[in-house]
Amino acid sequence: MSRLFLFLACVLGFAVVALAAAGAHLFPGDALFQTALQMQAWHVPVVLAVGVWLRVGGGVWVRAGGGALVLGLVLFCGALYAHAVTGVSLGPVAPVGGTLMMLGWLGLAVAAARG
Q1: Along the 115 residues of the chain, how does pLDDT read in single tens digits?
Q2: Exposed e or buried b for every residue in 84-112, given b needs 16+ CB within 10 A?
Q3: Please, are residues 57 and 8 in contact by the beta-carbon 8 Å criterion?
Q4: Which of 51, 66, 103, 108 could pair covalently with 6 via S-S, beta carbons 3.0-4.6 A apart?
């Protein structure tokens, strides 16, 4: 499971660099695109840390929290990217993704508190 999170962190990190380059040329100053980039960039190190945490023990709360965080990140950022590129809102996808990200953070907090 740790390999999966380490792999996802690398893919998400690659994507944020590629999207930042594309966004600078195609969507300069677009607030939705910039918000998605920032949120993705801030969370890549966390996904990487989840992979490391699972290598040294982790547990169910780390897996659940990390999974919710990654799924939420994909939904939240994906919805913002899609809206910025197409102008079409995906409805509740972004709020659901944001909620999953918050639940992911809470899951990681529980894992940390349980030691």
Answers
A1: 899 999 999 999 999 999 999 999 999 889 999 999 999 999 999 999 999 999 999 899 999 999 999 999 999 999 999 999 999 999 999 999 999 999 999 999 999 999 7
A2: beeeeeeeebbebbbebbebbbebbeebe
A3: no
A4: 51
Q: Assign 3-state DSSP to the chain and report helix, strand, coil percentages, each to 5.
A: 85, 0, 15
Instruction: Please give the model's pTM, rounded to 2 decimal places.
Output: 0.93
Asked if residue 54 lies in contact with residue 2, where contact means CB atoms within 8 angstroms, the answer is yes
| Helices (H), ranges, 56-92 | 60-86
Residue 23 is given by DSSP the state H
Q: Where are the domains of the chain?
A: 2-114
The structure tokens 């040294």 sit at 56
Using CA of residue 107, residue 49, residue 6, residue 93, what is the dihedral sign? positive
